[in-house]
Amino acid sequence: MSTPFAVTDTNFQELVLNSDVPVITDFWAVWCGPCKMIAPLLEEIAVELDGQMKVAKLDVDHNPSTAMAYGVMSIPTLIIFKNGEPVERIVGFMPKPRLLSKITPHLEPAAAVA
């Protein structure tokens, strides 16, 4: 079972950009109300999309370099990275069905069950 994992300025390249599956990265902060609202949805999505997508969380207060490099101006900002490139940007809270509608076009096909 997959869960969201923390990334930092130091390991972002390794864990997000070099990932073999798409990674939705949540740029967030402890003090952010909408970030707290979207966090449980991302936990559910991490479990539901295990194997097709990973969910990373980057605290912008402790990792400003990566947030600045990707032009994150407000949080929560979710950026989907595929093959090391940003392919979708989602800013602000949205309900899970709308969030999934933005995510699903970027998913890896589910592995065939033998």
For this structure, the CATH topology is: Glutaredoxin
Oligomer state of the chains in this structure: single chain
Report the sheet-strand fraction.
Answer: 15-25%
Portion of residues within helices: 25-40%
* Main pleated-sheet profile: 5 strands, mixed
Q: How many domains? A: 1
* Alpha-beta classification: alpha/beta
The helix count comes to 4
The level 1 CATH classification is: Alpha Beta
Corresponding CATH superfamily? Glutaredoxin
Could you write a compact summary of the structure shown?
It is built from 4 helices and 5 strands. It is an alpha/beta fold and about 110 residues long.
Give a verbal description of the structure:
This protein has a single domain, classed as Glutaredoxin (3-Layer(aba) Sandwich). By secondary structure, the protein is an alpha/beta fold. The protein has helices spanning 12-17, 33-48, 64-69, 96-103, and strands at residues 5-6, 23-28, 54-59, 77-82, 85-91. It has a five-stranded mixed beta sheet with strand order 1-3-2-4-5.
Helices, strands, pairings?
Layout lengths: L4 E2 L5 H6 L5 E6 L4 H16 L5 E6 L4 H6 L7 E6 L2 E7 L4 H8 L11
Parallel strand pairs: 1-3, 2-3
Antiparallel strand pairs: 2-4, 4-5
Features:
alpha/beta
